[in-house]
Amino acid sequence: MSHQSLRLIPAHSFEGKMERDSAGAAEETEPASPLRKNINEDSRAANSQSSREETCATTDVARARWTLLRQVLRQKQVDTPEVKQVSVRRFATFDLFTRKRLTQDPSDTSDDQWAEYRSVYFPEYSALLRDNLGPIRVNEVLNSFDNTGNVCVWPSEEVMAHYCLQKRHMFKGAVCELGGGMTCLAGLMVAICADVKEVLLSDGNEKSIQNVRGLVKRNRQAGKFGSTQVSARMVRWDCESDISALEGHFDIVMCADCLFLDQYRASLVDAIRRLLQPNGMALVFAPLRGETLRLFCQLAQQAGLCTSQHQQYDAQVWDVHLKMLTEGKDAYDENIHYPLLITLTKGPQPVSHQNKSAVAWVSNTMASCRLSWCQTRWEENTEKK
Questions:
Q1: Would you call 47 exposed, middle or buried from its count of C-beta atoms within 10 A (0-12, 13-18, 19+)?
Q2: Does residue 156 contact residue 133 with C-beta atoms inside 8 Å?
Q3: Hey, is 117 helix, strand or coil?
Q4: Alpha-carbon Rg of the chain, whole angstroms?
Q5: How far apart are the C-alpha atoms of 123 and 139, rounded to whole Å?
Q6: I need a labelling partner for 114 at 20 to 30 A (CA). Which of 146, 182, 218, 311 fits?
Q7: For the sheet containing 340-346, what is the strand order?
Q8: Any alpha helices (H) in 176-278, and if so which ranges?
Q9: Which of 106, 75, 267, 275 minimizes the C-alpha distance to 175?
Protein backbone atom coordinates (compact mmCIF):
# COMPACT_ATOMS: atom_id res chain seq x y z
CA MET A 1 0.00 0.00 0.00
CA SER A 2 1.46 3.34 -1.00
CA HIS A 3 2.10 6.13 1.44
CA GLN A 4 -0.55 8.22 -0.29
CA SER A 5 -3.19 5.63 0.51
CA LEU A 6 -2.46 5.65 4.22
CA ARG A 7 -4.98 7.40 6.40
CA LEU A 8 -4.72 8.59 9.98
CA ILE A 9 -7.20 6.70 12.13
CA PRO A 10 -8.87 8.88 14.77
CA ALA A 11 -8.44 7.93 18.39
CA HIS A 12 -11.94 6.53 18.75
CA SER A 13 -11.30 4.10 15.88
CA PHE A 14 -8.09 2.41 16.96
CA GLU A 15 -8.59 2.17 20.68
CA GLY A 16 -9.91 -1.32 20.02
CA LYS A 17 -13.55 -1.70 19.11
CA MET A 18 -15.05 0.43 21.83
CA GLU A 19 -18.20 -0.78 23.48
CA ARG A 20 -20.85 1.69 22.39
CA ASP A 21 -24.19 1.98 24.13
CA SER A 22 -27.38 3.14 22.46
CA ALA A 23 -26.79 6.68 23.62
CA GLY A 24 -23.52 6.81 21.77
CA ALA A 25 -21.26 6.65 24.82
CA ALA A 26 -18.22 4.40 24.58
CA GLU A 27 -16.39 2.19 27.01
CA GLU A 28 -13.01 1.00 25.77
CA THR A 29 -12.09 -2.62 26.32
CA GLU A 30 -8.85 -4.50 26.23
CA PRO A 31 -8.79 -7.70 24.18
CA ALA A 32 -8.72 -10.81 26.35
CA SER A 33 -8.59 -13.42 23.60
CA PRO A 34 -5.53 -15.68 23.70
CA LEU A 35 -5.10 -14.92 20.01
CA ARG A 36 -4.08 -11.41 20.91
CA LYS A 37 -2.60 -11.63 24.39
CA ASN A 38 0.88 -10.61 23.22
CA ILE A 39 -0.24 -7.48 21.42
CA ASN A 40 1.78 -4.46 22.53
CA GLU A 41 -0.66 -1.99 24.01
CA ASP A 42 1.15 1.01 22.65
CA SER A 43 -1.17 0.60 19.65
CA ARG A 44 -3.84 2.19 21.79
CA ALA A 45 -2.25 5.67 21.67
CA ALA A 46 -4.27 8.79 20.86
CA ASN A 47 -3.62 11.24 18.05
CA SER A 48 -2.68 14.18 20.27
CA GLN A 49 -2.12 15.08 23.88
CA SER A 50 -4.55 17.97 23.72
CA SER A 51 -7.44 15.85 22.45
CA ARG A 52 -6.72 13.32 25.18
CA GLU A 53 -7.00 15.86 27.93
CA GLU A 54 -10.32 17.17 26.61
CA THR A 55 -11.77 13.67 26.45
CA CYS A 56 -10.43 12.68 29.86
CA ALA A 57 -12.31 15.47 31.55
CA THR A 58 -15.74 13.94 30.91
CA THR A 59 -16.04 10.84 33.12
CA ASP A 60 -14.08 8.70 35.55
CA VAL A 61 -14.10 5.85 33.05
CA ALA A 62 -12.64 8.07 30.34
CA ARG A 63 -9.96 9.35 32.71
CA ALA A 64 -9.00 5.81 33.64
CA ARG A 65 -8.88 4.84 29.98
CA TRP A 66 -6.52 7.63 29.07
CA THR A 67 -4.42 6.91 32.15
CA LEU A 68 -3.96 3.44 30.73
CA LEU A 69 -2.84 4.88 27.39
CA ARG A 70 -0.38 7.28 28.98
CA GLN A 71 1.09 4.51 31.12
CA VAL A 72 1.54 2.30 28.09
CA LEU A 73 3.30 5.04 26.16
CA ARG A 74 5.61 5.69 29.09
CA GLN A 75 6.20 1.94 29.59
CA LYS A 76 4.77 2.07 33.10
CA GLN A 77 3.14 -0.83 34.88
CA VAL A 78 -0.65 -0.94 34.63
CA ASP A 79 -1.54 -1.71 38.20
CA THR A 80 -4.30 0.51 39.50
CA PRO A 81 -7.76 -1.07 40.05
CA GLU A 82 -9.45 1.71 38.08
CA VAL A 83 -7.27 1.12 35.03
CA LYS A 84 -7.67 -2.66 35.26
CA GLN A 85 -11.45 -2.31 35.41
CA VAL A 86 -11.74 -0.34 32.17
CA SER A 87 -9.04 -2.33 30.39
CA VAL A 88 -10.74 -5.73 30.65
CA ARG A 89 -12.90 -6.88 27.77
CA ARG A 90 -15.98 -7.92 29.68
CA PHE A 91 -17.44 -10.50 27.30
CA ALA A 92 -14.98 -12.30 25.05
CA THR A 93 -16.53 -15.46 23.60
CA PHE A 94 -19.64 -17.56 22.99
CA ASP A 95 -17.51 -20.67 23.69
CA LEU A 96 -18.05 -22.08 20.22
CA PHE A 97 -14.42 -23.21 19.75
CA THR A 98 -11.86 -24.93 21.93
CA ARG A 99 -8.19 -24.01 21.86
CA LYS A 100 -5.29 -26.45 22.19
CA ARG A 101 -1.73 -25.21 22.05
CA LEU A 102 0.48 -27.20 19.68
CA THR A 103 3.95 -28.45 20.57
CA GLN A 104 6.52 -26.33 18.81
CA ASP A 105 8.77 -27.99 16.24
CA PRO A 106 12.35 -28.03 17.63
CA SER A 107 13.62 -26.84 14.25
CA ASP A 108 11.38 -23.78 14.43
CA THR A 109 13.42 -20.91 15.89
CA SER A 110 10.65 -18.31 15.70
CA ASP A 111 8.63 -17.07 18.65
CA ASP A 112 5.38 -18.15 17.04
CA GLN A 113 3.00 -20.16 19.18
CA TRP A 114 0.46 -22.17 17.21
CA ALA A 115 -2.84 -23.51 18.48
CA GLU A 116 -5.60 -25.67 17.10
CA TYR A 117 -9.04 -24.09 17.22
CA ARG A 118 -11.69 -26.80 17.01
CA SER A 119 -15.44 -26.37 16.74
CA VAL A 120 -17.33 -27.49 19.84
CA TYR A 121 -20.46 -28.45 17.91
CA PHE A 122 -18.72 -29.68 14.75
CA PRO A 123 -15.54 -31.21 16.18
CA GLU A 124 -14.53 -32.75 12.85
CA TYR A 125 -13.49 -29.24 11.75
CA SER A 126 -10.51 -27.32 13.11
CA ALA A 127 -8.05 -24.63 12.00
CA LEU A 128 -4.48 -23.83 12.97
CA LEU A 129 -4.01 -20.28 14.22
CA ARG A 130 -1.00 -18.38 15.45
CA ASP A 131 -1.13 -17.06 19.01
CA ASN A 132 2.00 -14.92 19.14
CA LEU A 133 1.25 -12.15 16.70
CA GLY A 134 3.97 -9.74 17.77
CA PRO A 135 3.68 -6.11 18.83
CA ILE A 136 1.78 -3.39 17.04
CA ARG A 137 3.65 -0.09 17.16
CA VAL A 138 2.19 3.38 17.51
CA ASN A 139 3.44 4.42 14.08
CA GLU A 140 1.68 1.40 12.55
CA VAL A 141 -1.58 2.40 14.19
CA LEU A 142 -1.32 6.02 13.12
CA ASN A 143 -0.33 5.22 9.55
CA SER A 144 -2.47 2.22 8.65
CA PHE A 145 -5.97 1.36 7.56
CA ASP A 146 -8.35 0.19 10.31
CA ASN A 147 -6.33 -1.71 12.92
CA THR A 148 -9.14 -3.10 15.06
CA GLY A 149 -8.79 -6.53 13.46
CA ASN A 150 -5.21 -6.62 14.75
CA VAL A 151 -6.42 -6.68 18.31
CA CYS A 152 -8.48 -9.83 18.80
CA VAL A 153 -11.10 -12.18 17.41
CA TRP A 154 -14.36 -10.49 18.32
CA PRO A 155 -17.51 -12.44 19.20
CA SER A 156 -19.06 -11.62 15.82
CA GLU A 157 -16.18 -13.31 13.97
CA GLU A 158 -16.45 -16.35 16.24
CA VAL A 159 -20.21 -16.56 15.67
CA MET A 160 -19.83 -16.13 11.91
CA ALA A 161 -17.27 -18.95 11.80
CA HIS A 162 -19.68 -21.20 13.71
CA TYR A 163 -22.55 -20.24 11.41
CA CYS A 164 -20.45 -21.09 8.36
CA LEU A 165 -19.89 -24.57 9.76
CA GLN A 166 -23.59 -24.93 10.53
CA LYS A 167 -24.59 -23.82 7.01
CA ARG A 168 -21.61 -25.28 5.15
CA HIS A 169 -23.80 -26.89 2.49
CA MET A 170 -25.08 -23.53 1.26
CA PHE A 171 -21.61 -22.32 0.23
CA LYS A 172 -20.59 -22.73 -3.38
CA GLY A 173 -18.32 -21.26 -6.03
CA ALA A 174 -16.22 -18.32 -4.87
CA VAL A 175 -16.37 -16.89 -1.32
CA CYS A 176 -14.76 -13.73 0.07
CA GLU A 177 -14.36 -12.53 3.65
CA LEU A 178 -13.93 -8.78 4.02
CA GLY A 179 -12.29 -7.18 7.05
CA GLY A 180 -11.26 -10.53 8.52
CA GLY A 181 -8.45 -9.11 10.67
CA MET A 182 -5.53 -11.21 11.85
CA THR A 183 -7.22 -14.60 11.48
CA CYS A 184 -10.14 -14.46 9.01
CA LEU A 185 -11.45 -17.34 11.11
CA ALA A 186 -14.80 -17.61 9.34
CA GLY A 187 -13.22 -17.63 5.90
CA LEU A 188 -10.77 -20.30 7.00
CA MET A 189 -13.63 -22.46 8.24
CA VAL A 190 -15.43 -22.13 4.90
CA ALA A 191 -12.26 -23.22 3.11
CA ILE A 192 -11.96 -26.19 5.47
CA CYS A 193 -15.57 -27.41 5.62
CA ALA A 194 -17.39 -26.36 2.45
CA ASP A 195 -17.33 -27.68 -1.10
CA VAL A 196 -16.23 -24.41 -2.71
CA LYS A 197 -13.88 -23.62 -5.54
CA GLU A 198 -12.20 -20.54 -4.11
CA VAL A 199 -11.93 -18.59 -0.84
CA LEU A 200 -10.37 -15.12 -0.62
CA LEU A 201 -9.39 -13.90 2.86
CA SER A 202 -9.01 -10.13 3.00
CA ASP A 203 -8.42 -7.15 5.23
CA GLY A 204 -7.40 -3.55 4.69
CA ASN A 205 -4.45 -3.75 7.06
CA GLU A 206 -1.12 -5.02 5.78
CA LYS A 207 -0.02 -6.52 9.11
CA SER A 208 -3.22 -8.54 9.26
CA ILE A 209 -2.76 -9.94 5.78
CA GLN A 210 0.86 -10.85 6.45
CA ASN A 211 -0.35 -13.00 9.33
CA VAL A 212 -3.26 -14.50 7.38
CA ARG A 213 -0.89 -15.58 4.62
CA GLY A 214 1.07 -17.49 7.26
CA LEU A 215 -2.13 -19.14 8.45
CA VAL A 216 -3.06 -20.14 4.92
CA LYS A 217 0.37 -21.68 4.36
CA ARG A 218 0.29 -23.65 7.62
CA ASN A 219 -3.25 -24.96 7.12
CA ARG A 220 -2.54 -25.87 3.51
CA GLN A 221 0.51 -27.85 4.59
CA ALA A 222 -1.72 -29.64 7.10
CA GLY A 223 -4.06 -30.67 4.27
CA LYS A 224 -7.00 -28.66 5.59
CA PHE A 225 -8.19 -27.16 2.30
CA GLY A 226 -8.44 -30.12 -0.04
CA SER A 227 -8.78 -28.84 -3.62
CA THR A 228 -10.11 -25.41 -2.60
CA GLN A 229 -8.01 -22.47 -3.77
CA VAL A 230 -7.33 -20.26 -0.73
CA SER A 231 -5.55 -16.91 -0.92
CA ALA A 232 -5.13 -13.74 1.14
CA ARG A 233 -4.78 -10.18 -0.06
CA MET A 234 -5.28 -6.61 1.04
CA VAL A 235 -8.67 -5.24 0.05
CA ARG A 236 -9.57 -1.71 1.06
CA TRP A 237 -13.22 -0.98 0.58
CA ASP A 238 -12.51 2.62 -0.43
CA CYS A 239 -9.79 1.69 -2.96
CA GLU A 240 -11.14 1.59 -6.51
CA SER A 241 -8.35 -0.62 -7.86
CA ASP A 242 -8.87 -3.19 -5.06
CA ILE A 243 -12.61 -3.45 -5.72
CA SER A 244 -12.58 -3.27 -9.53
CA ALA A 245 -10.08 -6.14 -9.71
CA LEU A 246 -12.62 -8.42 -7.96
CA GLU A 247 -15.88 -6.99 -9.27
CA GLY A 248 -18.73 -9.44 -9.80
CA HIS A 249 -16.60 -12.43 -8.85
CA PHE A 250 -18.11 -13.88 -5.67
CA ASP A 251 -21.13 -16.02 -4.90
CA ILE A 252 -20.92 -15.15 -1.20
CA VAL A 253 -19.30 -12.17 0.52
CA MET A 254 -19.20 -12.03 4.31
CA CYS A 255 -17.89 -9.82 7.09
CA ALA A 256 -18.12 -9.59 10.88
CA ASP A 257 -18.40 -6.47 13.05
CA CYS A 258 -17.23 -4.09 10.33
CA LEU A 259 -19.98 -1.46 10.58
CA PHE A 260 -18.76 0.76 13.40
CA LEU A 261 -16.37 3.03 11.45
CA ASP A 262 -18.50 5.87 10.13
CA GLN A 263 -16.06 6.93 7.43
CA TYR A 264 -15.95 3.48 5.78
CA ARG A 265 -19.56 2.31 6.11
CA ALA A 266 -20.69 3.56 2.70
CA SER A 267 -17.54 2.14 1.11
CA LEU A 268 -18.28 -1.27 2.62
CA VAL A 269 -21.80 -1.23 1.16
CA ASP A 270 -20.43 -0.33 -2.27
CA ALA A 271 -17.73 -3.01 -2.04
CA ILE A 272 -20.26 -5.72 -1.16
CA ARG A 273 -22.58 -4.66 -3.98
CA ARG A 274 -19.81 -4.67 -6.57
CA LEU A 275 -18.06 -7.86 -5.47
CA LEU A 276 -21.22 -9.96 -5.56
CA GLN A 277 -22.36 -11.83 -8.62
CA PRO A 278 -25.90 -10.92 -9.77
CA ASN A 279 -27.37 -13.86 -7.84
CA GLY A 280 -24.87 -13.67 -4.97
CA MET A 281 -25.53 -13.10 -1.29
CA ALA A 282 -23.73 -11.27 1.51
CA LEU A 283 -23.67 -12.34 5.16
CA VAL A 284 -23.00 -9.58 7.67
CA PHE A 285 -22.72 -10.33 11.38
CA ALA A 286 -22.70 -7.30 13.67
CA PRO A 287 -24.18 -6.09 16.95
CA LEU A 288 -26.45 -3.07 17.02
CA ARG A 289 -23.72 -0.79 18.46
CA GLY A 290 -26.16 2.06 18.84
CA GLU A 291 -27.24 3.24 15.40
CA THR A 292 -24.41 1.69 13.37
CA LEU A 293 -26.27 -1.39 12.14
CA ARG A 294 -29.40 0.57 11.24
CA LEU A 295 -27.34 3.12 9.30
CA PHE A 296 -25.60 0.33 7.41
CA CYS A 297 -28.90 -1.27 6.40
CA GLN A 298 -30.21 2.13 5.32
CA LEU A 299 -27.18 2.69 3.09
CA ALA A 300 -27.49 -0.83 1.66
CA GLN A 301 -31.13 -0.28 0.73
CA GLN A 302 -30.29 3.07 -0.85
CA ALA A 303 -27.66 1.25 -2.93
CA GLY A 304 -30.30 -1.12 -4.29
CA LEU A 305 -29.52 -4.09 -2.07
CA CYS A 306 -32.30 -6.15 -0.50
CA THR A 307 -31.68 -6.57 3.22
CA SER A 308 -33.07 -9.05 5.71
CA GLN A 309 -32.34 -8.96 9.45
CA HIS A 310 -32.25 -12.11 11.60
CA GLN A 311 -32.01 -12.19 15.38
CA GLN A 312 -32.49 -15.91 16.14
CA TYR A 313 -30.42 -17.66 13.47
CA ASP A 314 -28.61 -20.39 15.44
CA ALA A 315 -29.79 -22.43 18.42
CA GLN A 316 -26.44 -22.62 20.24
CA VAL A 317 -25.69 -18.91 19.88
CA TRP A 318 -29.22 -17.99 20.94
CA ASP A 319 -29.00 -20.19 24.05
CA VAL A 320 -25.77 -18.48 25.15
CA HIS A 321 -27.37 -15.10 24.47
CA LEU A 322 -30.40 -15.86 26.65
CA LYS A 323 -28.21 -17.27 29.42
CA MET A 324 -25.99 -14.20 29.46
CA LEU A 325 -28.98 -11.87 29.57
CA THR A 326 -30.06 -13.45 32.86
CA GLU A 327 -26.80 -14.64 34.44
CA GLY A 328 -24.14 -12.35 32.99
CA LYS A 329 -25.64 -8.90 33.24
CA ASP A 330 -22.43 -7.40 34.61
CA ALA A 331 -20.39 -8.65 31.66
CA TYR A 332 -22.84 -8.88 28.77
CA ASP A 333 -24.57 -6.12 26.85
CA GLU A 334 -26.50 -7.34 23.80
CA ASN A 335 -26.17 -3.92 22.17
CA ILE A 336 -22.43 -4.46 21.75
CA HIS A 337 -21.98 -8.22 22.18
CA TYR A 338 -24.81 -10.06 20.39
CA PRO A 339 -24.33 -10.10 16.61
CA LEU A 340 -27.40 -9.95 14.42
CA LEU A 341 -27.29 -11.53 10.98
CA ILE A 342 -27.96 -9.31 7.98
CA THR A 343 -28.33 -10.97 4.58
CA LEU A 344 -28.01 -8.84 1.48
CA THR A 345 -28.88 -9.66 -2.12
CA LYS A 346 -28.96 -7.59 -5.26
CA GLY A 347 -32.32 -6.23 -6.32
CA PRO A 348 -33.72 -6.45 -9.87
CA GLN A 349 -30.97 -5.51 -12.29
CA PRO A 350 -31.54 -2.72 -14.85
CA VAL A 351 -32.33 -4.02 -18.33
CA SER A 352 -29.78 -3.07 -21.01
CA HIS A 353 -30.82 -1.52 -24.34
CA GLN A 354 -30.22 -4.84 -26.12
CA ASN A 355 -32.29 -6.72 -23.57
CA LYS A 356 -35.05 -4.15 -23.82
CA SER A 357 -35.27 -4.82 -27.56
CA ALA A 358 -35.43 -8.57 -26.93
CA VAL A 359 -38.17 -8.13 -24.32
CA ALA A 360 -40.12 -5.90 -26.68
CA TRP A 361 -39.82 -8.49 -29.47
CA VAL A 362 -41.09 -11.25 -27.18
CA SER A 363 -44.00 -9.08 -26.02
CA ASN A 364 -44.98 -8.15 -29.58
CA THR A 365 -44.76 -11.77 -30.69
CA MET A 366 -46.97 -12.92 -27.82
CA ALA A 367 -49.46 -10.15 -28.60
CA SER A 368 -49.56 -11.20 -32.26
CA CYS A 369 -50.14 -14.81 -31.26
CA ARG A 370 -53.00 -13.84 -29.00
CA LEU A 371 -54.56 -11.70 -31.74
CA SER A 372 -54.22 -14.52 -34.26
CA TRP A 373 -55.79 -17.02 -31.84
CA CYS A 374 -58.71 -14.68 -31.12
CA GLN A 375 -59.31 -14.10 -34.84
CA THR A 376 -59.30 -17.84 -35.56
CA ARG A 377 -61.84 -18.52 -32.80
CA TRP A 378 -64.08 -15.71 -34.12
CA GLU A 379 -63.98 -17.18 -37.62
CA GLU A 380 -64.79 -20.65 -36.27
CA ASN A 381 -67.78 -19.33 -34.35
CA THR A 382 -69.02 -17.42 -37.40
CA GLU A 383 -68.87 -20.54 -39.58
CA LYS A 384 -70.87 -22.54 -37.02
CA LYS A 385 -73.60 -19.94 -37.05
A1: middle
A2: no
A3: strand
A4: 25
A5: 40
A6: 146
A7: 229-234, 198-203, 174-177, 250-256, 276-286, 340-346, 305-310
A8: 185-193, 206-221, 240-244, 265-275
A9: 275
Segment 187-213, tens digit of pLDDT? 999 999 999 999 999 999 999 999 999
pLDDT in tens, 16-46: 344 433 333 333 333 344 333 333 444 444 4
Angle, CA 265 vertex, CA 262 and CA 266 arms, to 5°: 120
- Identify which of 49, 66, 59 has the alpha carbon closest to the alpha carbon of residue 25: 59
As separate numbers, helices (DSSP H) first and strands (DSSP E) second, the chain gives 14, 12
- pTM (two decimals): 0.68
Angle among Cα 201, 212, 346 to the nearest 5 degrees reads 15
**Euclidean distance between the first and final Cα of the chain, in Å?**
85
Q: What type of residue sits at position 26?
A: A
Please provide residue 129's backbone torsions phi and psi, each rounded to the nearest 5 degrees.
-125, 155
